[in-house]
Amino acid sequence: MTQQVALKLAVAEDRHAALQRSPLLANARTREQQSLIGVYDTGRLALRRAGILLRLRRVGGSWIQTIKRQDDSSGGLTIRPEWQAPYLNHFDFAHVDDAELRDWLQQEKIASRIASVFETNFRRTSWLLEPALGVRILAKLDRGWIASDGRRESLSEIELHLLSGSIDAVYDVALELARNQALPPLLLSKAERGYRLFRNTPPRPERAGEIDIRAVETPLAGFRRIALDCLAHLQSNHSGAIVGEDPEYVHQMRVATRRLRAALRMFRPALPPGIEDALVPPLRELMRGLGQARDLDVLVAEIVSPVSRAIPDDPRLTDLAGAITNRQYAARNAIRHMLRQPEYGRLLLTAGRLLHQAPFVEAPMPDDEANFLIPFADRRLRKLLRRIHELAASARVDYPPTLHELRIAIKRLRYAIEFFGALIPGKSGNVVIKRLAGLQDELGQLNDLASAGNLLMVCAGREQHLREAVTLIGGWHGQRHAALLAAIPEQLDTVRGLKLPKLA
Fold it and tell me: Which domains does the chain have, with CATH numbers?
């Protein structure tokens, strides 16, 4: 058995030549070969459900059988054991030195039902890199396709396979290669993409899920889990935001950046010096681009479209909607451009590198229970709640900025409670989260209406009939705006009564 440590990076299909001109690769030994890989499983995908990959690869005139077990994968970096042996016209698992895994594979209900589920065909260019003393990394640039049951999609990626040295060295090489082009970490392996083709699973925007956080660990370990989850949430929507038309991809990327910023704020007392300096400026720039695109999407869907449906024949509304749509397309193109830039890939690589080195890994457990995650989280949650109570006490219905600040504080507390959902017994966490989400939504609608006027006037420019359309939209929403304002005192009372769920 060998332990595989590899970092996969996505490569734009038109950037292979530029990547190969990188001095780091140009000065290394290269070789090219045609590769054909078949991946096998049972009809009910028993191997996949067990976290096992069974693969045949053609190397020259022979075939190699490989078995991999998914042990740990985060931020595109994969660490897992694998077993290789020659394939002699039948599957043979005798060489697997994990007795439990070998016995499982040799069961009749498994071994007798193995069949091909998909195949990949690609050209690989390999470089053996020795960037420092004791460091050897095999860089493998692949370009080709994956096919299953008549369906096919392209693949374009580079994998940095660590042969000797530290994980930090892998990130050194990745950041050097990403100096002049976007090389974001690739979350989906060839196998995962192949299984999706086999099952004909359509792409869709990915939402944040529950984090596998644990009570008996340090605040730094807890932050690491949360931050890696936020990065995965961000990157899982990256491709859809670039090539898809569904605005939800951009929205989910924006949510992911906000969650990561909330985590950085919440864990600030425990974080090592420099991490916020490294991550916050590029995160802020990314949030700005995502926010501009999202604000226009909300303007169209929530502010303009209801009025256009209610008054369908007004040419002023039609012309204003056209002007807004032009800006909307421009904003989407701008964020697509931003997501293709080197800065985006370097942000993810920098974050991944920080989270895979000390003090986030190999840190000793504290002797004092007060320094464990739950007491730390409890203190920070209480501080967030106190801040909300202070803002609620000073909020004014006639001064929207105070309500906007309260909404942001509510959102941060909601994210923080969601981070610790696995540590909250029963349904108490969901009850509080639902209440916070409702408050955030009510205040968010009010904020959208309050900020829509300025954005609409920017879109209308100096055209008089477009400005008249803005006035028409404002009047149409006036009743809803008044109702939202009238509900604020009751909402503030709800805020003052908020209580935190217990962490177990």
Answer: 2-198 (2.40.320.10), 219-496 (1.40.20.10)
